[in-house]
């Protein structure tokens, strides 16, 4: 059973990079309020009033501030449970029944109780409209404080999906016939905020006086559009929080004021995926040689100069060893160091030797790798240029093929490439991530490199049915396959960066206290961040 911890932490990490700005406002928030927080969040030039948490075009802030999830997990703390509407959950030994205990304090913004019946309605309603975040055999409410979910198969791996269910009030949603297109312009949620004001460029979320969980410290949260003046607004604290991307964060933001900060939450691992159906990439010694030729510190330094701590070398398991050490083999926590001598020795086992500065195989041809990437992905192109430079140094004919996104997608799906970059987001534990990366059923989808291995599939199947007490052992075995057989080459962590100012508000998460990722796009993560802030007096 997972129980309510003394201090909550959270998941719901959002990916965040796009230029942003917001409407000018006085320090502390829009309209001159001293108890407001202005957030750069939306792509411009205008926004549509859409507070439907299940719409693909829902406005950021809706989830978390207005609608709440059952619970979350903190990817920065090894998948730690984050209680919210649900205070505990427990599985039966076979993993086919999950019992959730609701927080009896939870109330909708109209003052009525949120009960287990609302959870059952939400799951059934979404299933009816093919929007449910998880599959189940049945879901019932034995009493107003308990939800029981049964599954056709063991569901230990579905914890994150269950926790991510944003609960809807039946009294408002039962009559909605198309949850994909309904704009839900006047939402009734259980979260700490209601919608107070809407314009075509910003939304003002106002704090609920009777919020069930705690006192809400920030009385107004203003979400504003993104645009070309982001840097200026951030520099002058007219925007105090954002995950919108600006150039040269160190020079343009951090250096301007000691109250300016950046927090780079390491939410994912980044990999080089070699097409394992193409020779010579099916050869383990070739893959190991490529891995040893890469300088992960230089790859990280590519962005860390102007965005300190943004990217870090990652363990060869693909998981950040600081957060996930308990789930990984102790001998594989250290990132691989560049070692050209060892790389050449590995290549030699595969029949490749340097001749005239070229790495030549038994057929007399130079080893060649073409990295496929989307032409518009400037960051990834820059990253691959460093990879190519390092591989050329050892004698490989490495190059980049930049193409349109639709061509990239079709070629990747069809296996028409030598190499691409890949990543996986961290979850409640590494097993779901390894399933995305390594399961045969995901070949051509998230298993882009086309790893097809019975031992791996068997371990993943065990991960579905094994109780929580055995999952660390399974995770370590999968991590060992990742390191020793190199289905992917792990290089660096992939960050989710947020900028924030402590001029008016303190209590933000950081490297020393990563209680959330500090991203404002929505979910339990966003709500926990806002509820943890303290006003500077």
Strands, helices and their partners?
Elements: E1 36-42, H1 62-66, E2 71-74, E3 80-83, E4 86-91, E5 97-102, H2 116-128, E6 138-143, E7 146-150, H3 159-163, H4 170-173, E8 193-198, E9 202-207, E10 220-225, H5 230-235, E11 241-242, H6 249-252, E12 260-274, H7 284-293, H8 296-304, H9 321-324, H10 340-349, E13 353-355, E14 358-360, E15 368-374, H11 378-393, E16 397-403, H12 405-414, E17 419-425, H13 430-438, H14 454-465, H15 468-485, E18 489-501, E19 505-506, H16 524-531, E20 534-535
Parallel strand pairs: 1-10, 1-11, 15-16
Antiparallel strand pairs: 2-3, 4-5, 5-7, 6-7, 8-9, 9-10, 11-18, 12-17, 12-18, 13-14, 19-20
Q: How would you summarize what this structure contains?
A:
This protein has helices at 62-66, 116-128, 159-163, 170-173, 230-235, 249-252, 284-293, 296-304, 321-324, 340-349, 378-393, 405-414, 430-438, 454-465, 468-485, 524-531, and strands at residues 36-42, 71-74, 80-83, 86-91, 97-102, 138-143, 146-150, 193-198, 202-207, 220-225, 241-242, 260-274, 353-355, 358-360, 368-374, 397-403, 419-425, 489-501, 505-506, 534-535. Helix 11 (378-393) links the parallel strand 15 (368-374) and strand 16. The strands form six sheets. Strands 8-9-10-1-11-18-12-17 form an eight-stranded mixed β-sheet. A four-stranded antiparallel β-sheet has the order 4-5-7-6, with helices on one face.
Describe this protein's structure.
The chain has helices spanning 62-66, 116-128, 159-163, 170-173, 230-235, 249-252, 284-293, 296-304, 321-324, 340-349, 378-393, 405-414, 430-438, 454-465, 468-485, 524-531; strands at 36-42, 71-74, 80-83, 86-91, 97-102, 138-143, 146-150, 193-198, 202-207, 220-225, 241-242, 260-274, 353-355, 358-360, 368-374, 397-403, 419-425, 489-501, 505-506, 534-535. The chain is α+β, with helices and mostly antiparallel strands and 537 residues long. The strands form six sheets. The chain has an eight-stranded mixed beta sheet. A four-stranded antiparallel beta sheet has the order 4-5-7-6, covered by helices on one side. Strand 2 (71-74) and strand 3 form a beta hairpin. The longest helix has 18 residues, at 468-485.
